[in-house]
Structure formats: C-alpha cells, structure tokens
Specification:
- This protein is mostly helical and 272 residues long.
- It folds into 2 domains: 109 residues, no CATH class; 140 residues, Farnesyl Diphosphate Synthase (Orthogonal Bundle), CATH 1.10.600.10.
- Helix 1 crosses helix 3, helix 3 runs parallel beside helix 8 and helix 3 runs antiparallel to helix 9.
C-alpha cells in the first residue's frame, strides 16, 4: 500500500471515530472531494479538540492554539508543530497530534485556503478560551459560533468554488455552520453544564436558543439553493436534515434521534 493510500485509509477511520455528523456525507463524496473535505474537516477537528480539552490549562490551550494559528499562516512546518505538541503527547488526542498528516493529505491547490480558515479558527478559539466562554449577548454568541462552526461553512464554500466553480453566499455559509452548532449546543447543554460552560446569552432561556438554531437553519436552506452539483448538494443536505430532525427530537423531550431515524433520514436524501 502506498503512503497516500495508507493515509487515506487512516484519515477515513479517524473521521469515523471523531464525527457523528460529517462522516456519512464525506464518505459519499467523489474521490477528490472526499479527500479534500475529509482532510479539511480533520484539520479543524484537530484544533477543536485542543479548545475543548477538559484537563489542559486554559493558558496552555491559548498558547497551543495561537502558535498553531501562526504555523498555519505559512507553508506548514510539521516538524515545528511536532515540537510544539510533543510535551503534551500523552494528553492530546491522535487527531490533534497528526495535524501535519491531514494537511499533507489535502490537495496542494486548495490546502492554502484550508490552512487559512483553520488558522483563523484557532486564533478565534484562543480568544474565547481567554474569555472563559463568557457569552453575554447574541453578538457574543454569533462571534463564538462563527469561530467554531461558521468558518467550516466558509471553508466548504472555498472548496466548492475550487472544485467546479460553484458560487455560494458566504453569509449563508456561515449561518449553515452556526445552525448545526446551535443544535449541538442544545443537545450537549447538560454535558456542557457539568464542565461549567453555558453557551447562553444573559436573559436567554432554552427557547431562545431553539429560535436561534431555527433562524440559522432557515438560512442554511437558502445556502444550499445556490448549489447545483449533485454530489455537493447531497453532502450539504445530510447534516442539515440530521440537525433538523435532532431539533425536532429535542423539542419532543428526547436526548437525540434514534439510529433508525438517522438511517431513514440519510436514505431518504440519497434516494431522493
């Protein structure tokens, strides 16, 4: 097996291990898009795992995120990154330790855009770690969800443009990411509360967060109207449909969708 084939196999396994939402649609993409979106997702996941780490000291998180952000602004130096994370090798997950692999796996023509979005994400996450995730207003919530999820939408739009010149609205792309993130926040509220984090602006309750999620998911519907490439459209529709069904389940007082609901939702979109 060639190094590239080995890396592809490992990247797909890592996607399966780390993403409930994106593994299925990435798997359905055509080979070049699968490689590109898969590597891009893993780059952002690598950063996200540092921000979300339960035991790392906040000051250390900031240092790791800001240093990684700087490394991503130029052709990536994998050796420098390994030196950066080496002291924390036993604490950081494999997806974070192997950031250089995910960048190497990304097609050279688009890797600069992937690095750019991931760099902005890492710097923004560092700012929010420094603020101790204190969200006071809806503008704060917008800012936080931009860095942790809206940038995923921006990066995807860059990839669609590179792949076949598909043009999408950037503001709607950000809303697409925000909508998915808001549903995750609603689903993980108890878990977040246990670690002392509450992603609710002052004077907001759960209903306000439901409304915020619905508003952004409506914009996500608008976002995909610009997409006519069947394979890209399939990819975008699956996470969106799963988020809407999850929101419905949460409103009904359930923790999440059932496995059969997930399968039914995905099958319906594939066969549509």
């Amino acid at each position: 097996m060639s190094n590239q084939a080995k890396l592809q196999k490992e990247a797909m396994q890592m996607l399966k291990d780390t993403s409930r939402t994106f593994y299925i649609p990435i798997k359905l993409l055509k080979p070049e898009l699968k490689r590109t979106v898969g590597s891009a997702y893993l780059c952002m996941r690598a950063i996200d795992e540092i921000e979300d780490h339960e035991t790392l000291d906040p000051k250390l998180k900031q240092q790791l995120l800001r240093s990684t952000s700087e490394l991503l602004k130029v052709p990536f130096d994998g050796v420098a990154y390994q030196e950066l994370v080496k002291p924390y090798k036993s604490q950081l997950p494999e997806v974070s330790l192997r950031l250089a692999d995910w960048i190497a796996f990304c097609p050279k023509e688009i890797v600069g855009k992937v690095q750019e979005s991931t760099s902005i994400m890492a710097a923004g996450m560092a700012e929010w770690v420094e603020k101790d995730f204190q969200i006071k207003t809806e503008a704060d919530l917008d800012d936080y969800t931009y860095y942790v999820a809206g940038l995923v939408g921006v990066m995807l739009s860059d990839i669609w443009k590179w792949y076949d010149n598909t043009e999408t609205n950037r503001d709607l792309a950000i809303a697409y990411g925000r909508g998915l993130q808001a549903v995750n926040m609603l689903r993980n509220q108890d878990e977040d509360a246990d670690r002392g984090v509450q992603f609710l602006p002052d004077n907001w309750n759960k209903d306000d967060l439901f409304a915020y999620a619905e508003k952004n998911l409506e914009k996500a519907d608008e976002y995909i109207k610009d997409i006519h490439t069947k394979n890209i459209l399939l990819f975008c529709r699956i996470p969106l449909a799963l988020s809407k069904r999850t929101l419905k389940a949460l409103k009904e007082g359930r923790e999440k969708m059932s496995r059969s609901e997930v399968e039914e939702t995905v099958d319906k979109i594939i066969n549509d």
